[in-house]
Amino acid sequence: ALDNGVGRTPPMGWNTWNTFGCNISESLIRQMADAIVSTGMRDAGYQYVVVDDCWFNPNRDSAGNLQGDSSRFPSGMKALGDYLHGKGLKFGLYEAPLDKTCAQYFNSYPGATGSQGHEAQDARQFAAWGVDYLKYDWCSPSGSIGDQVATFAKMRDALAATGRPILYSINSNSVHAKTGPQRNWGDVANIWRTTEDIQLAWDTGQANGYPMGVKNIIDVNVPLSGYARPGGFNDPDMMEVGRGTLSDTEMRSHFSMWAVMAAPLIAGNDIRSMNAATQTILKNTRLIAINQDTLGLQGAQVSYDGTRRVLAKRLADGDVAVALFNQG
Length: 328
Ligand code: GLA
Fold this sequence. Notes:
Blueprint: E1 12-15, H1 17-20, H2 26-38, H3 41-44, E2 48-51, H4 77-86, E3 90-95, H5 102-105, H6 119-129, E4 133-137, H7 145-162, E5 167-171, E6 191-193, H8 214-221, E7 233-235, H9 248-260, E8 265-267, H10 276-282, H11 285-291, E9 300-304, E10 308-314, E11 320-326
Parallel strand pairs: 1-2, 1-8, 2-3, 3-4, 4-5, 5-6, 6-7
Antiparallel strand pairs: 9-10, 10-11
Helix pairs in contact: 6-7, 9-10, 9-11
The structure holds alpha-D-galactopyranose.
The site of alpha-D-galactopyranose (GLA) has 10 residues, from helix 5.
């Protein structure tokens, strides 16, 4: 696994995408940061506030530097990072390794501001803004898995060269053949997406195609348990807890399985308005402790009869956490 000092346990935080998509602004993110603090989410461990796609100006400046979108982020990205750090939180940003981000690829956002050819410059810019977490998203049908490894490694090395500890999150699956589950990406990144995008659904019938339900993601992610270790974790995508539609039982199963699979716990709901049931699930301190155990192991499957799974996760104090999941 990457020995860059971060991601020794799965990262916890919140990301803009699941609820807000491209409709983001500094005022929204500041409000969410305030809510993460006032609801006790920060103190439960949710640290990283990740600004996903669509934060940037569609044009680089005359020196080729990335810039925030000045109408929606008028104070600039450095000021946003300062605000988050002032709240005891950490700052995450999204970029893409080729020419376009996913929103640009799908023409829902203008420009072509991917980091291709700008890796070192962009990494330095992120470090200067105080970024603590980079989500780096392939967003292209092109390239072999070998090309992906080499290209993702460029940004890994560029981040390391800045000297700032920056958690490195990659997604090789977007708009591409699903290479996420085909190798152990722990040599390249701290966390790596194993599946297509999660949606607000339990079972979409997909093996690993768009859109994935919670149950479909579990089917892909469980067999990859041997890859997890401090500094490197399978990423079964951001959580749908508290976004509506899923029942409380389904949300508890979703959260419990993410916890025992040593998944990043990145909330995707609107923290400002979450109800009591959602809070109880997301702030379950005992499940969070299992997820954050310092051995950094992912629960390994000990039995599965096609409906009922048993996963066991060894813990640092010698205990074993056991999950029984009746996915039928
Ligand atoms: C891809 C990623 C999502 C999100 C969007 C943004 O689909 O998998 O998590 O980052 O791009 O456009």
